[in-house]
């Protein structure tokens, strides 16, 4: 059904948005919709383009006790995300053409939002046997990743970069040298305090330094997932100054939390990479502000209560993030006056669309798909895991007061979320 959203605040000005056949056909104070269009009054509210998250885990098939495509995409819609890219570490791993076809069909059938699919770099995520990237990209792979596992062999990474360069794809890389990680679960500084095994930042930065040289040799588009270390930020900065095709993301927990905030053996603070020092956190914020880091991605990683039970030494890595990311970014960056809303939206819409070539994601422009979010900049609320649409409740942000509540979310002009 055609729609017109009136009294919408867009970039600080009152405007209207006309939606016809799922696309935006008009934006402005004098636009009009065809007779019979649904009228949506957004008085007092702000409209932004649908958010884009290039790093989520929906767990289906194989791990549906943690999350499903339906519950994960419902969480995305509730958080204002209209396009997400799902990682391939489901069961079976998305590393073969037939599996990718099945996964894309599942995503389309069960997803409330646009669920793109990332395929594996190597078979089973931990082998040195490369997937058939050309065939996978032709079928529809949005990018390639072994997320959750670092590629240990430089020769394997070099071959992967050569292949991804040929097919014009993107490698989105989890950096972790297993020998240096040494079974750690928290930053070494927190580890000493909490008597838990430490996971050094060198595990991330040394692999990054290696890979930057391989990018220099191949020209492959290389995307750094969930940057956590100040040393990595500086390496990325220097690589970009050298003109290398590198992009990077940072997750909200690494921006807004650090190891000093872990007060005890609390599994909700266990993620990989771990929360690092205050100096690392400040470097990540600075890197985001100066463009070294391109975008924010949630690394939404839902787990069951049982998965997260017990000590950080034994429980699963990961936290949920789709329903908290936007509000946290709005609270800490926009409401605080550090950046304007347009800058925050660029980290969560424009930059991921550009980096991953997401042609079916809307940017709130005439002719684009009507992927839109209506939210209240003034409403304050506390993050309550009991309200989550995700199956996961594993968040360290429970109880935090934030602003920026999502009221309604639209994908291709159809409402996929409305606050009750």
From TrEMBL:
Residues given in the record as Zn(2+) 2 binding sites: 147, 174, 226
Superkingdom of source: Bacteria
Residues annotated as catalytic: 299
Signal peptide limits: none
EC nos: 3.5.2.3
Amino-acid positions noted as binding substrate in the UniProt annotation, renumbered to this chain: 57-59, 89, 272, 303, 317-318
Enzyme class: hydrolase
SUPFAM superfamilies named among the record's database cross-references: Composite domain of metallo-dependent hydrolases (SSF51338), Metallo-dependent hydrolases (SSF51556)
Binding locations of Zn(2+) 1: 55, 57, 147, 299
Domain Amidohydrolase-related, chain residue ranges per copy: 46-416
Alphabetical keyword list: Hydrolase, Metal-binding, Pyrimidine biosynthesis, Zinc
Cofactor requirements of the protein: Zn(2+)
Catalytic activity as recorded in UniProt: (S)-dihydroorotate + H2O = N-carbamoyl-L-aspartate + H(+)
Cofactor details (free text): Binds 2 Zn(2+) ions per subunit.
MF GO annotations: dihydroorotase activity
Family membership noted in the UniProt record: Belongs to the metallo-dependent hydrolases superfamily. DHOase family. Class I DHOase subfamily.
Job of this protein: Catalyzes the reversible cyclization of carbamoyl aspartate to dihydroorotate.
UniProt-listed PANTHER family: ALLANTOINASE (PTHR43668)
Official protein name in the record: Dihydroorotase
Source organism of the structure: Fructobacillus fructosus
Name of the encoding gene: pyrC
């Amino acid at each position: 059904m055609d729609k017109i959203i009136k009294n919408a605040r867009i970039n600080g000005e009152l405007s209207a948005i006309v939606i016809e056949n799922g696309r935006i056909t008009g934006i402005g104070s004098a636009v009009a919709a065809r007779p019979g269009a649904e009228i949506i009054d957004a008085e007092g509210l702000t409209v932004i383009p649908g958010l884009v998250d290039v790093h989520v885990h929906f767990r289906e098939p194989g791990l549906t006790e943690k999350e499903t495509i339906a519950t994960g995409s419902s969480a995305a819609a509730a958080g204002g995300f209209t396009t997400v890219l799902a990682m391939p570490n489901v069961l079976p791993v998305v590393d073969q053409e037939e599996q990718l076809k099945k996964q894309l069909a599942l995503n389309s059938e069960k997803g409330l939002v646009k669920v793109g699919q990332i395929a594996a770099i190597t078979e089973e995520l931990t082998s040195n046997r490369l997937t058939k990237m050309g065939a996978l990209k032709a079928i529809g792979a949005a990018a390639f990743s072994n997320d959750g596992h670092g590629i240990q062999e430089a020769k394997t990474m070099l071959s992967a970069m050569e292949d991804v360069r040929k097919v014009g794809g993107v490698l989105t890389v989890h950096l972790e040298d297993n020998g240096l990680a040494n079974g750690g679960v928290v930053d070494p500084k927190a580890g000493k305090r909490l008597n838990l095994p430490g996971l050094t930042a060198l595990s991330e930065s040394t692999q990054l330094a290696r890979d930057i040289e391989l990018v220099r040799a191949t020209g492959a588009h290389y995307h750094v997932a969930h940057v956590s270390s100040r040393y990595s930020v500086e390496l990325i900065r220097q690589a970009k100054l050298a003109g290398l095709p590198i992009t990077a993301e940072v997750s909200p927990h690494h921006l807004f939390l650090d190891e000093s905030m872990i007060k005890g053996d609390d599994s909700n603070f266990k993620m990989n990479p771990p929360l690092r020092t205050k100096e690392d956190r400040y470097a990540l914020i600075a890197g985001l502000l100066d463009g070294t880091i391109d975008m924010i991605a949630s690394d939404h990683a839902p787990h069951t209560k049982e998965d997260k039970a017990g000590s950080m030494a034994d429980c699963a890595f990961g936290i949920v993030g789709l329903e908290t990311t936007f509000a946290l970014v709005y609270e800490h960056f926009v409401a605080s006056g550090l950046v304007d809303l347009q800058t925050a939206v660029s980290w969560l819409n424009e930059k991921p669309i550009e980096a991953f070539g997401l042609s079916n994601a809307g940017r709130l422009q005439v002719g684009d798909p009507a992927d839109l979010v209506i939210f209240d900049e003034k409403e304050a609320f506390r993050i309550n895991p009991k309200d989550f649409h995700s199956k996961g409740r594993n968040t360290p942000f429970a109880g935090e007061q934030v602003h920026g509540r999502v009221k309604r979310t639209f994908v291709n002009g159809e409402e996929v979320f409305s606050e009750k």
